[in-house]
Structures are given as C-alpha cells and as structure tokens.
Amino acid sequence: MSGAATFEGDPAPAGLTEAFWAYEAALMADDVGALDRLFAPGPETLRGDASGLLVGHDRIAAFRAARGGAPRRTITQVHVRRAADDAALVVAVTRNDAGGVGQQTQLWRRSAAGWQVAAAHVSHTPSGALDPSVWRVAGTPLVAGRPDGPLRGRSVAVKDLFAVAGHAIGAGVPSFLTGRTVEPAHAPAVQALLDAGASVVGIARTDELAYSVAGRNPHYGTPVNPAVPGGLPGGSSNGPATAVALGQADVGLATDTAGSIRVPASYQGLWGLRTTHGAVPRDGLVPLAPRYDTVGWLARDAATLLDVACVGLAGAPQRAGAGRLAVVDLWSAGLEEPVAAAFRDAVAALGPAGFDVDPVAVDVGDLGELYEAFRVTQAFEAWQQHGAWVEAHPGALGTEVAARFAAASRVTADEAAAADRAVTEACDRIEDRAAGRVLLLPSTSSPAPDAAAPSAVVEASRAATLRLTCVAGITGRPAVSAPVLTVDGAPVGLGLVGARDGDLATLALARQVAAALRPARREEATEETTSPRPERMGA
Amino acid sequence: MSGAATFEGDPAPAGLTEAFWAYEAALMADDVGALDRLFAPGPETLRGDASGLLVGHDRIAAFRAARGGAPRRTITQVHVRRAADDAALVVAVTRNDAGGVGQQTQLWRRSAAGWQVAAAHVSHTPSGALDPSVWRVAGTPLVAGRPDGPLRGRSVAVKDLFAVAGHAIGAGVPSFLTGRTVEPAHAPAVQALLDAGASVVGIARTDELAYSVAGRNPHYGTPVNPAVPGGLPGGSSNGPATAVALGQADVGLATDTAGSIRVPASYQGLWGLRTTHGAVPRDGLVPLAPRYDTVGWLARDAATLLDVACVGLAGAPQRAGAGRLAVVDLWSAGLEEPVAAAFRDAVAALGPAGFDVDPVAVDVGDLGELYEAFRVTQAFEAWQQHGAWVEAHPGALGTEVAARFAAASRVTADEAAAADRAVTEACDRIEDRAAGRVLLLPSTSSPAPDAAAPSAVVEASRAATLRLTCVAGITGRPAVSAPVLTVDGAPVGLGLVGARDGDLATLALARQVAAALRPARREEATEETTSPRPERMGA
C-alpha cells in the first residue's frame, strides 16, 4: 500500500514514501528484521515512547524483539516536512483498531543503505482507564481523607497488601484476590493517613505475596521505571513506587520485609523509609514474614516523606538524635565496582561537608552468611504464612515466586532454628559494633536491571542486593533509601540504617546528607542540560 | 541557560542551541508571544500531543493562549540530529517537577526569521492514575461480571447516573456526590450487563445532572475527542463516549433525554442507541426529565452495540421489521450547508444501494416549534426533579447548567401544560405522517464544536442540534446514531428514528445502511493514507 508523496514547489525526496509504507507494512507484520533494517544502524539512533527514550540501534532492536508486535492500526494522516534532499520528517496520525489515536514522528535520512529512520517518537492515547501494571483500582479519589490535617491535599497509593474498606486484598495474585472477601475497615496504617488529611488515590500493585524485589508481576505486568528506560521498577512495592515516580500519587504506603521499599526507591530515584520493626501497627495487612515485615512509605522528596512518617509513627516512641555516621565494611558484599565507587565518592564528600563520620568501618560480619540466615528464616515464616494456600492453589503463582515458595517448603524446623540462632547472634554482634551509629551502605547492589533480563540475572541481582538490605532486617533497625548516588546515569539509593526507634532522626539526617551531596549532582545535571552532549551524525 | 551544541564531525548549525533554550525559557515563563515567534508561521506548522495533532501556526497559537502554561519541568537529555545547515531535529527528554517524564521532538528550520520550529511532537507519562475528565473511579475491573455469557470479555463504562453497588452516584456535580450514600445494589441496567458476562471498568463522567449536550464539565474538565483534535466530546454522556472512543471500554452504558447518547456518538464517530422510551428499566438512575429519559449504549462498532442492545432489551417487546426509510423534511432545521450536503449525499446513495427510500420527505412540522415545546416540558420536569436541590446548593453548578435550571425555575404550570399539549399534538402528527417509516436525519447540526468555543457558540449549536434530536424525544421512538457522515474531515452521525419497540430492527437497518455507505468512505481513507496530501514547504 505505497503511494507517491508530492510536494508543491519541491520534488519529493525520491523513495521516501515507499520506505515509509514499507516500514508500516513491516510494523503490522511484526517483521523485526525489516524494521531493524529500516532503522539507521549505530549508537545514535533514537526511539522514544511513553516508557522512555532508547538510544542506539541495538537497544531499539532488543526492545522490538521483546515486544511481540505493535497494536493493529490505520494511518489516517501523513504530513511530510522536507529538510534536505536526503532528510525529511514524516509525521503520521494513527487510529488503533481497538480505539484511541496516536502520533508517530520520524526523521528519515538517506544514506548508501537507502532511506532509514534516524529518530522516531511514538505516542498514543492510553489504551486503558488505568495502567494495570501499576493500579488495581483508582479514583478521584478512591477514598477521601479528612478535609484538614498535616497531610491535606496529599494523595496516597496503597500497596495491595493493606485492607481498604470496601475492597478485598489482592496481594498481587488473581486467585488470592478472588478468594478474599471485601474488607470491612481500613488497616490502621491507611486510616492514620486518611485521618491526617491525605486521600487514597487507589490500590497499587505488588509482586506476588510481596515475595520478590524485582517488581515484575507475571499476572499484571511490569510497571515502568521513569528513571531508567527499560529498567525494572523494583519491588515488591512496584505499584506504589511507580505511581509516586509518575506523579500519580504523592505517597506510597508500602511494606518492607527484605527490601520491598528500599529497592524500588533505589531503582527509581525515590525516597523510601523502612520503619523500626514493630513501630507501625501491621493489623489489616497480609503478612509475608512477621519477624521482618515492616510498614513504610515512598515519596519523591524528603519533606513529604518526613511529614508522612511523623503521622505514621505518631504512636511509636522516637529517640532524638540519629547518632554518628559510620560506613558498613563491604568486604563481603561483592559489589560491582561502579556502585562501590559511587558509594565511596559520596562517603568521601561527607567529612568535608561537615558530617561526623566514624573513620572506622563497621564490620557487620560476612554479608553472605547474614543473608543466608535471613533468607532461611524468612522462607520458613513465609511458608508458615502462605504454604497451605500455595499448596491448595497449584499454578496460581508465576515461576519465580513459585520456585521461592517451593524452596521455602523444604526448610526444616531444625534448619530454621539454626538460622534463627544465627540471626540473633548477628543482630547482637551488629548492635554491639554499631551502637550509636547510623550505618551507611548502598541501598541496592546495582541500578535497576533491564526489565527484559533473564530470570538468572534478576535472581543474581536480588541475592546481591539482599546481602545489603538484610542488615536492617536482621537488626529490626529503620532504614532510609535516599536518592543520592548515580551509576551510569541511573539512580542508586544511599542507605542509612539508623538505631531502633530512630526513624525520624535517621530520616532527618538522610535529608541533610542528601542536601549536602546534591549541589554537586545538580551542577552536573545543569551542565548536561545546557550543553547537549556531542553527537556523531548517522551514516 | 543556553549553551553551545557541539557535534563531532559536523559544526553545529549556528544559533540552534540558543534558539532551543530560548524556547524552553519562554515555555517555562508561558511567554506566549515568544513561543508563537519561535514556531514557524503558516498553515503547515505542526504540533502534536496526546489530544491530537494541530496543523497550522494559528491553531497552535490558539491552543497555547488557552492552555495557561506548561507544567514545570527539567530537561534531562538533549539529542540533536542534523539534517542540513538550516534544519535539525532536537529531541529532549523532560522530567516534570510533579513527577513523570516526557519527550519533546522538534524539527527546527532556519529562515530569514531565524531558527523556528516547523514541527513538534510532545508526549508525557500520564500525570494521574486515571483521566479525571473521563473517569471518577475505575478498576481492572471495578466490578467483574459473570464468567460466561453473550457479553463475556466486554468492558463497560457506566455513566455516573446509574447505581453501582458500593459507590455513591455523583451525577457530574461534586456537592451532589458528597450528599449521596453508597448504593446497596446495581441498577437493573448495570446488573443486566454483568449477568451477561460484561465487566464494569468504571464509573464515567457526565455533564452536570445530564442537563447539557456539550460534554464539558466545569468541575472535572472536558474529555478529549479522539476523532476531532480540540473538539468537544459531546454530552451529557461524555465520559462513557470518550472511554469507548479511546478503547478504554467496549461499551458505554448511558442515558439519552434530549440527545445525550446521540450527540457524543455523532461528535466522536461512535455508534449510539437511544432506546424506545420506557423499554429499559430506569430504576437506580438519577432522572432528569422522566417523560423523555431513556437508557441506551455507545460502542465503536454496530456488532457490539447490537449484542449489548439484545441483552439490555431482553425484557422489552420488540417488533420485527424496521419499516421503510424516509427522510425528515429539514426545511425548518436551519442546518449548515456542509452538514445538509453530507446528509443529502448519503441519502442519495441509498436508493442505488438497494434501499427502499420513500421519495416523499416527512414533514414533522416546524422543528423550531417542536424544540420549544420539548425544551419547556423538559425544563419543567428537570426543575421538579432537581429544583429543590439546586436551590439548596447555591454555587454548586457551573454557569451554563445553573442558567438552564434558573430558566427552568421560571416555567409556569400553565406554560408547561401548553407545551405539554403541543408535544402531544406533535407526537400524534409525526406518528400519523411517519407511520411505518424509519426517519432519517443528521444526528447533530454540526461536527464537534471547538472545545475552546465561547458559551454562546456552544449554546447555539446545542439549540440547532436539539431541533433534530427532539423528534425522537417527542415521539418516544428509538434512535440510532450511525458514524456515516463526514464534514470537513470530522464525523457526523446519521440518525435513524425507528418505530417504537423497533429498537433492534432499526439498529440492524442502520448497520446495513452504514455497510452500504462505508466502502466509498473507506476508499477515500485509503487514498488519504497512501498518498500524503501535498505539503508546501515552510519559509
């Protein structure tokens, strides 16, 4: 279905229209090879859509190979703007067979290889009332809070583990949801925010039964990570985190057992607080491993997180003064060098910035052993909580979480008891060595892995990250993830593990630390924005 | 905050970077004059975003003047792709202060006037969990239907006038919603769809108390019309209509008193059915004017609408055979010529297509007089329904609907009685002259008016359209709006007003009519898409 483009005044660049329609035909046929050939080769080719801008032909080709075809559509308008004999912009308006309209803007350039797309920008009206990977239900608002209060005007995304009156809890598993009844009342953690004037926008997604930190749910999809095009959002609080990152909510009400708040905060450049174990009531919450389960929040800025924490921790004793900063000795963390370097640079900047940093790193022990003891005790409790349900619902869970529960089912009482002793000893040792200290470490072992990464890669990053996050889990300490580090242009959180009941003091300290480290980063950012980085022209 | 763009290999087009940053500064300052100067003059300049593609500098300037500024943002990446010494593409990635990311793609060209944008494409991640102009609450789904049935897999947007169990009815007015209690059960019209296997996606917006056909709600905003960039969506069923047009729902469950289904169907190129008055139960529905209130549906295609109508009308007697087609004599309609011409052409094509069209047009009387009698009786009943509430809630309604109720409050019982007699006489006269006929007329007097049009313009188009829609209202006949006509590239519905209890037969006939008239239109469309229309190069 090709035709001839004719311009008044100028002749059409020969062959452009044919190339344009060849591309459209290949797109509708999902002829990946043809599409790849019609995109200019090399690292400068651009393709952007709602999930972000992909730079480089190979990155674009990988996206296309994983996508599995574009929605059926009709092109209703084509506008050509000529720039030169060998370059033109083609703007097309599209109408999807399933409803909605879109726009496709392409810069075509002619080389020895013929006409190819050097840059493409695709957008479309939302195909759903809401993004099912982020939200299960939402409203304007779904639940209105008190008309007044310290959180007046703030909107909350509630992780689908908390009771919201009038709705059942889904916990990220369709067959779990269908087996639940509607909750008669809000969980206390929800009610506290409503009473303080916040409103609930909706119920946001979680990894299955919160037993993952990747953020990809096999039933509802993988939320976008606005900070890392193509990157995992992090979990298990993936819905609340992405909702906050997108500005669809100001606050994410979530849980953190092994890192479910700190990991998505780190991957998406958000602020996250895991509270002191037991400090916030967990009634009306589907548990994973009560020994480690905590309630906490995500926000785009520290001020909001502090406001919310003051409300959520109103009933908990809080100590004044966070204590002295000290680095966790990461000899056994097996960190990738870029993350280690970014962490070292940040720490090195604290002294000159006037912070009292203990020159002696705190050796919390072999992080591999800590994680193993944590993992076994968590698995044992997770099976106690959900084993019966999992066994009664074969096929209800995706491969990765199902495998995790299968492993959990094999943990013996003796193994659990041994691991339990190891956790207690580790806790005592760490508290002994870290008394009066706020421990510094990276929130995650890496930036967000690619969402298309194979399970083995995601599993490896999970294991490496849990070596870091388990320090707070084992000690029951509060932990903040502050969006301070940058690795390869992607955010990584700086973790501050404070003293028990030092939640607010630790968060306040984290805010000061971020403020002290930010200027440097802001200058870089400004530099980046004011001076487009050098670009090589495509062939 | 301007800087120098440097390319490897090629020199930067001189002044481009400065122009780019000048544009960004003007955007953040909402300096409309500077923005207009930085966009190329003339009818070929392009600007596209989620609400559609605007063509021509003046159209873009008008949009900008009405917008009131862009969201605060930071540019995080800039990529330049050079096309010639005087032309380059600049792709910027943006991060909104309020969360979310976006992309801006601009083709800059240099003329005697300096560097100017010849084409721009802007997109952004959704700033809300859902579009508040379309939805009040939504889920995945909000209410699940039976696992099986003729509507299995179909999703429904319910107009916010129907009872949905667990939610209050809002009727498009915030203070009305706050005064309502949660509905204990679904309205029968909702339950029927659930029982047939459809699911409810959510509760969609309506004009205030359904007393408008414009589709702009002063409290919740104006939904987009995907078929007409910048055009009104039509109302009062604006939410369900736009939800269906966007593919966010397959079916809109709505009401039609004076045209609230047919008008948005006509403006957005959808299929709409207003059922025989009284054929579908109206329990659990907030009324406007019971004498004219009807339940009906919107869909993207006739097959879906027919499936839904069969379910929704299951309890109603239906006659076989629609009857003979006949044109309504529009001597008193005061139609704009382009609409009259499109209607004439469609009618002229019916005979050759094998349809039995009565050569004699049906004179239903002076449409101005019909509308006046309809208007007065509707107003009298609307005040009886809502007058007490409106008086008790000063300031609760927007200017236009408030004025409509104020006028309604002044209708005396004598005026109402006289209008009532006129309606009855008109009904008898029309039924006498149209016996056994399916009446053909345009669904609306024009395509969708511009959403930025002043109230007087919108009010005039309303009055002209209601002269057409009131024929079904006065007779209680079913009416179909079929997306058959095109005026200036925008859709206009072909209206078929069938015999009472001939809903399904009339819809089936409308489907045949559309199928007979469509091929011609499809060829045009294909022609349009395969051969980009001639473009003049910008200066």
Keywords:
homodimer, 539 residues, Nuclear Transport Factor 2, Chain: A, globular, disordered N terminus, AtzH-like (chains A, B), NTF2-like_dom_sf (chains A, B)
Question: What is the gist of this entry?
Answer:
Chains A, B: This is Amidase. Chain A has two domains: 119 residues, Nuclear Transport Factor 2, Chain: A; 402 residues, Alpha-Beta Complex (Amidase signature (AS) enzymes). Helices cover 35% and strands 22% of the residues of chain A.
Description of the molecule:
The structure is a homodimer of 539-residue chains. With 539 residues, chain A is α+β, with helices and mostly antiparallel strands. Helices cover 35% and strands 22% of the residues of chain A. Chain A has two domains: 7-125, Nuclear Transport Factor 2, Chain: A, CATH 3.10.450.50; 135-536, Amidase signature (AS) enzymes, CATH 3.90.1300.10. In chain A, a hairpin with a 4-residue loop joins strand 5 and strand 6 (101-111). Chains A and B meet through strand 1, strand 2, strand 3, strand 4 and strand 5 of A and strand 1, strand 2, strand 3, strand 4 and strand 5 of B.
How widely separated are the two ends of chain A? Answer: 28 Å
Biggest chain pair contact, residues each? A-B, 97 and 96 residues
CATH superfamily of the largest domain in chain A: Amidase signature (AS) domain
Main beta sheet of chain A:
10 strands, mixed
User: What is the helix tally of chain A?
Assistant: 14
Oligomer state of the chains in this structure? homodimer
Helix content of chain A: 25-40%
Low-pLDDT segments, ≥5 res of chain A: 1-10, 520-539
Mean pLDDT of chain A: 93
The share of residues in extended strands of chain A comes to 15-25%
Task: Give the CATH level 1 class of the largest domain in chain A.
Answer: Alpha Beta
Enzyme class (chains A, B): hydrolase
GO molecular function (chains A, B): amidase activity
Keywords (chains A, B): Hydrolase
EC number (chains A, B): 3.5.1.4
